[in-house]
Specification:
single chain, alpha+beta, Thrombin, subunit H, Pdz3 Domain, 7-stranded antiparallel sheet, 13 helices, 42 strands, about 20% helix, elongated
Length: about 675
C-alpha cells in the first residue's frame, strides 16, 4: 500500500470538514460583502457632458457620457478629465435616478482626473471613501462600476492582472511611452496603473474600481479593444491626492525641472535613475545636467529606480517640490559625483484653452514655454494654430496657414491672449508666422463664414405631378405589359396627371405622339425632360395603357411645379443647434404626411446642441414648440422666441417621425 493511499482518506475527511465549516462562515461573509458592494454602487453616478471640440478650424458641439463617484456630502464627484475635457455643461445622474446640473471644480489632465460639484444647495449626498493605501495582489477579484455606453447602474467583474502596470511594452522605449497619450501634456507619469480584466466600455471612464469587500481602490480610465479584456485604473491613493487638491484649489500644483528620467534597466548602472532627456533652454539645461547622467539623490535623499514601474515615484517627488525653490541634485557622470543646484518652474495643470477665430477660419491655443521648448521654438508670445477651416480666409491666405504654424504678430503687433484679441477693421491683415525654421509673412482677408443657406432661385418649370418608374422593353415582356414606357408609381394630389384622369399603375407610352422609350430601368430623365420641354399652359396629348382597359388618351395641361427643397426658405438656428426649412411637396409624399401638412422639416441636428439634448432628429417634421403651432418658417421663429422667454421647467416639441406623432422634452437647465 502506498503512502498516498494511506494518507488520502483522513485528508479528504479533513478537507470536507473544513469545507463545511468554511461554507457557513463564507455565507455570512459573502452576505456582508454583497451588502457592501450594493452600498458602493449607490455612490456611483453617470455623467452627461455637452462638450465643444475643435476640428478643422471650427468648434463642434457633441454629447458624451462618463461615470463618476460621489466623494463628499456636498456633492463633489470624482471622474476622469477626459470625461470633462472641453465640457460646456454637465449633468449628473444618481443611482436612484435623480438628475442634477453640475459645475466643473477642477481638472488635472496630467493625472486624467477631474472633480465636478452637483448644483443643489442644501442637499446632502451619501459618498464614498477611496482607500489611502490599497493593497492588491495578482488574482484579487475586482468590480468595475459605471455607465458603459450611457447605461447607468452597470457592473462587471474580473481580477487584478497586475497591481502596478506601467503602460510600456517590451518593444517600446520606456522614456517615450507617456508622450503617446498627448505630446503637449503627457498623462500617467506619476503613478503605475492597476491592470485588471473586468470588462469596461466607453462610458465606464471615471467610474470606480471596487474590491470584493466594496472598497474603492481605483478609478477606471482606459480599456483595450484588442487582445482581450485589458482595463487600467488609477490607484486610489493617487486619486485621493489629486482629488483633495482639486477640491481645495481647483488645480494641482506641480513643478517641472526640464528633464525626464528612466529606470536603470538595460543601462548597466547600479545606482539612482538615468536622466534620459533634458529640454533645451530649461533650468536643468542651463545648470549643466546632461542626458546619460545618473541622478543619485534629490536634496540629499537617495532615489532609485531599477525597473520602469519604479520611475513614477521619482517623477512624483520631483513634481511635488515647490516651483521657484532651488533644489540640489547629486548626479554621477563618468564615475564622478557632482552637485547641481537649480529651481524648476510651475507645470501648468491644463493646456491653454482653445479658441475659434471665426473670421480668420482658424482655431488657436496660446503657446506656453513648455510647448515652445518641446518644439524647439522661442518662448516669445505666440498662438499655435490647431486647426484650419477648409475654404476659409486662413486656407485662402498667401501663403495658406497650416496646422502647427505659430502666429507671432498681427499688423506688426505681438499677439495678445487669444481671448483678448480685437480684430482691426481692415480688409486685409498682415501676419507674421513661424513655420519650422522659417519666418513667413502672410496676407489674409478676414471674412464672415457663410453659415446661412440661401435658397436656390426657384425656376418656373412645367410639372406633370407624378413619380414614374422606367419600364424597358425587356422588363415589359417579363411583366406582361404591352410595351415600354413609364409606369405611374405615385400621383401628387391635384397634380396635372391626376386632374387629367390618370391613375397610379397606368403605363405612359407616348407624349404628343412621340413614344416614351427609357434607356434602362433607372432612367426617368426622358419622361421628366419631355415634360420640362413643354410650355406652361399648353396641352400635351398623352397615350397610356391601363390594366383591364384599352389605351387611354387624354389632354394634359402643364402647370408650374412646386418648389424643390433647396429652393424653400430655411434657417440655421445656432441656439437650438438645428437647420430647418419649409416642407416641400416631395416631403409630403416621401414621409407620408397629410396633403395639407404644416410645419418645418429638420434637416440637420448638431451633436451636443439643445435639439440633440431634446432628442430631435434630422427628418423630423416640427409641428409645435411649447404648444405654439408651426405652419411655416416665420411661425417657427415666433414659437422658438416665445419658448426661450417662457417660464417653464422644460420645452416641449411636437414632431412627426415616420408614422407617429411624438412629444419630446428638453430640460431647461441645459440652457443655463
Amino acid at each position: 500500500m502506498s503512502f498516498l493511499s494511506v494518507v488520502r482518506p483522513p485528508l479528504i475527511a479533513v478537507l470536507l470538514a473544513a469545507a463545511c465549516f468554511s461554507s457557513i462562515a463564507s455565507a455570512a461573509v459573502s452576505a456582508t460583502a454583497l451588502e457592501l458592494r450594493k452600498q458602493a454602487a449607490s455612490k456611483v453616478v453617470a455623467i452627461l457632458v455637452v462638450a465643444e471640440h475643435f476640428r478643422q478650424g471650427s468648434g463642434v458641439l457633441s454629447l458624451s457620457s462618463g461615470s463618476g463617484t460621489l466623494v463628499s456630502a456636498e456633492g463633489h464627484v470624482l471622474t476622469n478629465s477626459h470625461v470633462t475635457d472641453n465640457g460646456r455643461s454637465f449633468r449628473v445622474v444618481l443611482a436612484d435616478g435623480r438628475e442634477f446640473p453640475a459645475d466643473r471644480i477642477g481638472e488635472d489632465p496630467i493625472s486624467d482626473l477631474a472633480v465636478l460639484k452637483i448644483r443643489s444647495p442644501g442637499t446632502e449626498f451619501g459618498f464614498a471613501r477611496f482607500e489611502p493605501a490599497p493593497r492588491l495582489e495578482i488574482g484579487d477579484p475586482v468590480i468595475a462600476m459605471g455607465a458603459p455606453w450611457g447605461l447607468a447602474n452597470s457592473v462587471s467583474s474580473g481580477t487584478v492582472n497586475n497591481p502596478a502596470r506601467l503602460l510600456v511594452s517590451l518593444f517600446q522605449d520606456e522614456a517615450d511611452y507617456e508622450e503617446g497619450f498627448n505630446f503637449d501634456q503627457p498623462t500617467g507619469r506619476f503613478y503605475a496603473w492597476i491592470q485588471h480584466d473586468a470588462p469596461i466600455s466607453p462610458g465606464n471612464s471615471g467610474g470606480p474600481l471596487v474590491d470584493a469587500q466594496g472598497r474603492f481602490i481605483g478609478v477606471n480610465t482606459r480599456g483595450s479593444f484588442f487582445g482581450g479584456d485589458m482595463a487600467f485604473a488609477i490607484p486610489s491613493d493617487e486619486a485621493l491626492r489629486v482629488m483633495r487638491s482639486l477640491i481645495a484649489h481647483g488645480t494641482v500644483l506641480r513643478t517641472d525641472f526640464g528633464f525626464r528620467v528612466r529606470s536603470l534597466k538595460g543601462s548597466g548602472a547600479k545606482r539612482g535613475v538615468l536622466v534620459t532627456a533634458v529640454d533645451l533652454g530649461s533650468a536643468a539645461d542651463q545648470a549643466g545636467l546632461r542626458p546619460g547622467d545618473q541622478l543619485l539623490s534629490i536634496n540629499a535623499e537617495a532615489v532609485q529606480a531599477r525597473r520602469p514601474v519604479e520611475v513614477p515615484a521619482v517623477q512624483r517627488r520631483l513634481a511635488e517640490w515647490p516651483s521657484e525653490k532651488v533644489a540640489e541634485f547629486t548626479v554621477l557622470r563618468d564615475q564622478t559625483e557632482m552637485r547641481l543646484r537649480f529651481a524648476g518652474e510651475a507645470l501648468p495643470a491644463t493646456l491653454p484653452e482653445e479658441y475659434e477665430l471665426t473670421r480668420l477660419g482658424i482655431t488657436v491655443r496660446a503657446l506656453t514655454p513648455t510647448m515652445a521648448r518641446r518644439r524647439g521654438l522661442a518662448e516669445t508670445p505666440g498662438w499655435l494654430v490647431t486647426g484650419v477651416r477648409p475654404g476659409a480666409a486662413a486656407a485662402l491666405a498667401k501663403p495658406a496657414l497650416l496646422v502647427g504654424d505659430v502666429l507671432r504678430r498681427i499688423h506688426e503687433q505681438v499677439v495678445p491672449a487669444p481671448n483678448e484679441w480685437q480684430e482691426p477693421a481692415v480688409d486685409k491683415l498682415k501676419l507674421q508666422i513661424e513655420r519650422r525654421a522659417s519666418e513667413l509673412l502672410v496676407v489674409l482677408s478676414p471674412a464672415d463664414p457663410d453659415r446661412a443657406r440661401p435658397p436656390n432661385r426657384a425656376l418656373r418649370k412645367p410639372w406633370a405631378g407624378a413619380e414614374v418608374q422606367a419600364i424597358t422593353r425587356s422588363t415589359a415582356e417579363v411583366l406582361g405589359l404591352p410595351g415600354p414606357g413609364y409606369r405611374i408609381s405615385y400621383l401628387y394630389p391635384g397634380g396635372p396627371l391626376q386632374v387629367a384622369g390618370f391613375e397610379q399603375g397606368d403605363l405612359l407610352q407616348s407624349l404628343d405622339d412621340r413614344p416614351l422609350l427609357p434607356l434602362h430601368e433607372d432612367d426617368d430623365r426622358v419622361f421628366h425632360s419631355r415634360i420640362r420641354d413643354g410650355l406652361l399652359g399648353e396641352q400635351m396629348q398623352v397615350v397610356a395603357w391601363r390594366p383591364g382597359a384599352e389605351q387611354i388618351r387624354a389632354a394634359l395641361s402643364l402647370q408650374v411645379g412646386p418648389a424643390e427643397a433647396d429652393a424653400l426658405p430655411g434657417a440655421e438656428v445656432d441656439r437650438l443647434g438645428v437647420t430647418v426649412r419649409e416642407i416641400s411637396v416631395r416631403d409630403v409624399a416621401e414621409r407620408r404626411l397629410p396633403s395639407a401638412a404644416k410645419g418645418v422639416l429638420i434637416e440637420r441636428v448638431e451633436p451636443g446642441g439643445l435639439a440633440a439634448l431634446a432628442h430631435l432628429r434630422a427628418g423630423d417634421v416640427l409641428h409645435a414648440v411649447n404648444d405654439q403651432d408651426i405652419v411655416d418658417l416665420r411661425s417657427f421663429h415666433r414659437a422658438w422666441a416665445a419658448a426661450l422667454s417662457a417660464d417653464s421647467a422644460s420645452l416641449r416639441f411636437a414632431v412627426q417621425r415616420q408614422a407617429a406623432r411624438r412629444l419630446l422634452l428638453l430640460d431647461r437647465s441645459w440652457m443655463e
